[in-house]
Amino acid sequence: MNKKILIIGLGITGISCLNFLLKKKIIPAIIDEYTNPTFIKKIPPYIPYHLGSLNKDWILNAELIILSPGISIFNNIILQAKKKKIEIIGDIELFSRYNNTPLIAITGTNGKSTVTNMLAKVMRKNNFKISIGGNIGYPVLDLLSLKRDFYILEISSFQLETIKKLNIYIAIILNISQDHMDRYPLGIKQYRNFKLRIFKYANICIYNSDDILCYPKQFYNNKKYITFGQNSGDYSLSIKGNGIYLKINNQKIFDFNKTQLIGIHNYLNSLSVLAVTDILKIPKKNFFKEICNYKNMHHTLQIIHQEYGITWINDSKSTNISSTKAALRYLHDKKKIWLLLGGYDKNCELYLLIKYLKKKNNIKVLCFGQSSKKILSIYSKAIKVNTMYEGVKKIIKLVKYGDIVLLSPACSSIDQFQNFKQRGNEFIRIVKSMYHR
Question: How many degrees, rounded to 5, is the angle at CA 192 between CA 186 and CA 198?
Answer without folding.
Answer: 135
